[in-house]
Amino acid sequence: MPKEHPHIVIAIDGPAASGKSSVARTLARKLRYVYVNTGAMYRAVTWLALEKGVPPLDAGRVQQLLHFTEMECGVRDGESTILLDGVDPTPHLVSEAVNGNVSAIASIPDVRRLLVKKQRAYAFDYDVVMEGRDIGSAVFPETPYKFYIDASAEVRALRRARQGLQDSITSRDKQDSTRRASPLIIAEDAHVIDSSNLTVEGVTGEIFGRLKQKGLPLGEL
Ligand code: CDP
C-alpha cells in the first residue's frame, strides 16, 4: 500500500442486496479489522436532505446543506459510525424514502468527494473491510484485495423482500451503474463471486482462499 495508507484495505463492491454487507461484516469480525459500510454514509446524507426538506436532485442545495452540517465518522465495536450534527441517523437509513432517493444523492460529485475523503481516512488508522459500489475502482484502486459480489436479479429481490424492506433495487442498480461520477463497475483486477447459490460462509470462505493466495497473513483462519 502507498505510504499514506499503511493499513490493509479489503474492498467489497457489488449491486444492491448482493449479500456484500453480511459478507463484509463477517470477514471484518474474523480478521479483527474495522467494517466500514459506505452505503450507510450515502444513506445518512439522503436522510439529512429529506429531513431538512432539501430536494435530493438539487445538487447545489445538498452541497450547501453539507457545508453547514458537522459530520463525524468514527468506529464503535469494530464498525463504522456516523453522526450528523451529533445525531445518529441509523434507525432511518433503510426507510422506503431513503431507498428511493439515495441513488440521486450518490450521483452528486461533491457528495462523493466529501464521503470518499472520510472513507480514505479510515485507512490512516485501521485495517478495514470496506463495502460499497466504488471501493476497488475509485476509493482504494491501489489495494490488491478487491472483490465484486454479485447475485441474480431474482435472488437479490427475494433477499430484500425477506428482510421486509420496500426497496426499488432495479432502479437503484440502473442509476448506480449509469451515473457519471464513479459508477458501479467491476474493477479490472477484482475477483468476482456469484453468491446466488452460496451462503455467507461459502462466500467468505472463497474470499479467505483468495486472500491466502495473495499472501495476506491470516493466522489460524
Ligand atoms: O445494501 P445495499 O446494497 O442495498 O445498498 P448500500 O450499500 O447501503 O448503498 C445504498 C446506495 O448508496 C447505493 O444504491 C448507491 O447509490 C450509494 N452508494 C454509492 O454510490 N457508493 C458507495 N460506495 C456505496 C453506496
Task: Give a brief rundown of this model.
By secondary structure, this protein is α/β, with parallel strands linked by helices.
Describe this structure in words.
With 221 residues, the protein is α/β, with parallel strands linked by helices. Helices cover 46% and strands 16% of the residues. It has helices at residues 20-31, 38-51, 59-67, 96-106, 109-125, 135-139, 153-162, 169-178, 200-213, and strands at residues 9-13, 34-37, 71-76, 79-84, 128-132, 145-150, 191-194. Strands 2-5-1-6-7 form a five-stranded parallel β-sheet, sandwiched between helices. Strands 3-4 form a two-stranded antiparallel ribbon. The protein starts with 8 loop residues before the first strand and ends in an 8-residue tail after the last helix. The mean pLDDT is 94. The structure holds cytidine-5'-diphosphate.
Q: Which small-molecule species are bound to the chains here? A: cytidine-5'-diphosphate
CATH superfamily: P-loop containing nucleotide triphosphate hydrolases
- Report the total helices: 9
Helix content: 40-55%
CATH C-level label:
Alpha Beta
Cα separation of the termini: 23 Å
Q: How is this fold's topology laid out?
A:
Blueprint lengths: L8 E5 L6 H12 L2 E4 H14 L7 H9 L3 E6 L2 E6 L11 H11 L2 H17 L2 E5 L2 H5 L5 E6 L2 H10 L6 H10 L12 E4 L5 H14 L8
Parallel strand pairs: 1-5, 1-6, 2-5, 6-7
Antiparallel strand pairs: 3-4
Helix pairs in contact: 1-9, 2-4, 2-5, 4-8
Bound molecules: cytidine-5'-diphosphate.
